[in-house]
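Q: Sequence in, structure out?
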Amino acid sequence: MNTLTPPLPANFHGACQLVHLGVIEVSGSDAVSFLHSQLTHDLALLEADGIRFCSFCNAKGRMQATFMACVAQPSVVWLVCRRDFLAAVLKRLSLFVLRAKARLRDASDDLSIWGLVGEGLPAPWKKQDRMGGTAMGLYPAAGKARALWLAPAGQSPVSTSHPAGLDPAAWLWGEVISGVADVQAATTEAFVPQMLNHESIDGVSFKKGCYPGQEVVARSQFRGTLKRRAYIVSGPAMQAGQAVYTDGDAAQECGTIAQAASDDSGGGVALACLLTAVDQDRLHLARPDGPLLRLWPLPYPLREDI
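A: Exactly. Output:
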């Protein structure tokens, strides 16, 4: 296995607006307790400067969405997710409100969402006030600190330390290199959290109470039934949802592309959910004789015990 990471794009520094992301706003006196009962992480014990990376699962433990969850005010929570299926997730999550005093709405048009890369950003899963908005620390990409920045629409975090000009395509490349995969329209309900290593990057709490799919998620963790994990691969341009094959079994796919990014030259990187037992040196994209994929190490250790 290689000991390096795929190279980052040139000039991977600065700020760019992230039009592929949106925000579900949950407000009301029961906003936190409602979400605590629906998502994979513990929002009830969230620190004042904390955020949560978490999932919304169906009854079978399959992820319908992933969120960056931030308590913006005592009775207001922001859920940042992929915009391509936000409306569907909002509709599904709203079905569980019942008598809870919580109101859900699409607040994407009311907020500016930017990506920041560079110095002085909050640590992963922490937030800080910055330039009139809220910066939310993400996992780094090849050692480069990253954060999401949210503020009222029209505002910008551009500064001398984080100038405008970061290419949105470079941001997407950094998302993959960080090793943290989002669920998107092409992959909704395709994976349980551990298939994308979410227990290893603090995306799941195994100490909180019930939420949809909790029994399946816990069983996967503690009974050793998990046979798939996420890995970083590189090759030609890829798309989420594409199949991956190995020389060892040309008749059946051994994995799925979970998240992908590409560059101007036609090259790509991706997070692929793969069977852990396959020959990872002979991976092919889309078909058994498709382009070869190169496997790279993860930037974090996989946790054996929680």
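The first strand starts at residue 14 and ends at 17.
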